[in-house]
Amino acid sequence: MLPFLLAENVNLEQYLPLYVRIIGNHAQRHLSRPHGYPAHQLFLTRGGRGVFIIDGEQEIVLSAGELLLLPADTPHEYYSIDPDKEWNLGFIGFNGSAANPMLQQMNELLMRAIPVASFDQLWEHLESLWHLLHSSEEHAYWESSKRLYGILIGVLETQYANRRSIRNTFTSGHMNTSFQTAINLIHDHYNERLLLSNVARTAGYSVQHFHRLFVANFGMTPQQYIQQLRMRIAVQLLQEHPGIAIEKVAERVGMDTSYFIRIFKRTYGTTPKQYLRRD
C-alpha cells in the first residue's frame, strides 16, 4: 500500500503545465465530497469493487482492472460494495494549465468505468510516481510532471483503441438504425428520469455494450448527451422567455434547481440569472 501523499511542489506550480497534487493507494473507506475536489482525479481499482455516486445521481461501479477519470469540483462520494473483500483503490489528483486541455481530449472517458488492457503497467507507473514524489527532491517534481504526462497519454491511447475496436466490429448501417431509435427516445423523454437500461433495450443492446457503442458514435456518454440536450433546451427557454423563473426552467428540463444551476454554470461559465442579464 502507498499511503496518501500530498505532493509539495516547492512553488513550482507556476512553471509546471502538469503537476501531481495527491497520490496514493489503500483499502478505500467511504468518502463523501459534496463540493468535489479541487483537482482532476484518476482512479484505478486493483482489487475488489467500489461505487462512485456523481452529483448525487449517476452511479459508476469500478471493478478490478478499470479506471475512472473525474473532473475537478465534481460532487461525488464513493465506497466499497463488497463488504467481504477489500477495495484496493489507487488515485492521482492532478492540476496545471495543461490539465483541462488533456481532459477535453479524453472526454469520452470522463466519469465512466474504463477497462484497461495494460492495467498492470499503468499501476506500476502509479507506484513509480509515488516513490519519486516521496523523495521530496526538487528534480522529482519536474520528472513527475513528465511521467504524469506519459500516464495521461497512455489513458488517451486507451480511448483511441476502444473507439477503433468498436467501430470495426459493427456495420454503420446497423448502428445508425439502432441508435436513431435510441436518440428519438432520449429527445422525447429528456425531461424525465431516463434509465440507461431502457434506452439500451430500445436499441437492442445490453447496457454496457450500448454505452460503448454510443461513445464510439457520438463522442460522449449517453448521460453527457442527455445533459447537453437539457442545457441547449434551457438556453432556448431563457432566450424565448426572458422573464421566466430559473426554477421553472429547471423543472422543464427535468432537473433539481440547485443541480441545474451548477451544471449550467459548468457548461456555459455563467449562472442562468447572469445569462438572463446579458445584453
Automatic annotation (TrEMBL):
Key words of the record: Activator, Cytoplasm, DNA-binding, Transcription, Transcription regulation
Q: Which GO terms describe its molecular function?
A: DNA-binding transcription factor activity; sequence-specific DNA binding
In terms of Pfam families, this protein maps to: AraC_binding (PF02311), HTH_18 (PF12833)
* InterPro entries per record: AraC-bd, AraC_XylS_family_regulators, Homeodomain-like_sf, HTH-like, HTH_AraC, HTH_AraC-typ_CS
Q: Which residues form the HTH araC/xylS-type domain?
A: 180-278
Q: Which PANTHER family match?
A: HTH-TYPE TRANSCRIPTIONAL ACTIVATOR RHAS, HTH-TYPE TRANSCRIPTIONAL ACTIVATOR RHAS-RELATED
Q: What is this protein called?
A: AraC family transcriptional regulator
